[in-house]
Amino acid sequence: MAWTPASRDGSASAFDAPESHAATPAAAADTQTLWRLALPGLLGLGVLALTLGLSRPAQAQEFDFKGFGTLAVGQVLSGSRDTPLLGRYDCPCTIADYGHGGLYRKSWSASPESKLGLQSTVKFGGQWSATGQVVVRDVDGLKAGLEWAYLSYTPDSHWTLQAGRKRLPLFYYSDFQDVGYAYNWIRPPQDVYGWEAINFNGLTAAYSTQLGDWSLRGSAFAGREATKDNDAAKIYYEARQDITWKRIVGADLELANDWLTLRFNLIKNKVDQWDYSDGTRTPVTQGQSQLIYGVAANIDWEDWLLRSEYSIFDRSDFSYKANGVAVAVGRRIGKFTPMLTLGRYRETNRWAPDTVQRDDTLSLSLRYELGRATSLKLQWDRFKDKSGSALDFVGHSKLLSLSLDTVF
Amino acid sequence: MKATLMHRHHPARVLAGLLLSLSLGSAWAEMVIIVNPKNPVANMSAEQVSALFLGKSNVMPSGGTAAPVDQLEAGPLYEEFYAKVAGKSSSQVKAAWSRLTFSGKGTPPRALASSVEIRKFVAGNVDAIGYIEKSAADASVKVVLSVN
To answer: pTM for this one?
Structure first.
């Protein structure tokens, strides 16, 4: 979500001329786009080819290929802001994907949330596997992103060790946030979800076991994520921001029985941020400490569903704290699953209380099973912007969106 | 939500259960959850079985690794098994597995084309666990749970 004002200094002027950025001429931009599109895909395929090449033909080898896709369209029905946000987003507008900077506007668009994910796993040596996942999006021009590229080792039925690139397990749905088929909304509640870092490169150790009727899974992870031209920052800054989450250390614990799932998580890391307002890479934050912790509780009882999550982001170096909460109640009625969701996001900042982001969201969603691992969803969202007077933000809005989700 | 399950393979109870289901004219087949005879587990609860088939666990109550094998989704037993033992529809099962598959936490059990193939697989693998019609079970496998 929003940044501390100390890292958002006034130099991000609305009148920044294009020349002041490290601008690339049109031709180079095309090459750049092609490169951005091809590189992650090639990287993923490279990992795959490497593992295929490394494994001997004689050994038992399994290769599988699967994927997921979402075709989502949305339109802002009405909104209070009528000037573009940061010269970048047409408004009235609604934020649908903080992490990737995806906003809907008044005309129908499929760009903010449509995506195609391809994943493949190669197993070798009995206890090893290599997995790659590439997701193609059109939120900021058509781009392929390498979400996963990791090696996995399972020494026994309890432990799993992984090294490489994965999604950062910040929240309950973070790991599979791109797989729309796996949950009932069109998107997990954005009051909780969506921060600057989505993936990380590092190590994970996970342990799972069964205690009576409860299954337990705990993991600990460490790593870092360096992003250039950060997508989430596009909602808050006009100039390019490079953001690194370093020295990430975290753990999560999930307990589940047949009707209740609880998840606790704790992550600590340091943030470096660079701003390009004057055309040069200028550090604005170095080594800012951050602590993220939260809890999720999901209930599936008879045909009733409850989904709830509460998360706190604490950047105490800057007297900044943010908390997000979302609670959803739904019911399965044949092939339909209607849900009502309430979300709330609040920031506090002792140094700059007028710049805090505060909002309330109400969502009504309906999921319909089409069969063949495909679902159709309709969702209406009402966003109430109660942000501080010094934050130039999106304003109130109402969004209507429709999605088709599948896994294969 | 969960069907009444018999936890012990008692002959008199089996007969009573069979008579009852015959008299009620049950449309669904009587089903058994089977493991390899060398597996130390004597019986399992519905929760323990569904945990293995939904990816919540891959460990047998005895502590050994489990290798679940599924029926084909289009087959007659798939829906019955997941509804009665796990209390889930097939789309819920798919959504549950897509969460795990696409977050690198597990892969769904392989499916075999018939109960006979499943029985053979379970008979030949110490870690295997599967579900077949009661009529398809024989001495080559051990029943740990009956569902009717």
So the answer is: 0.80
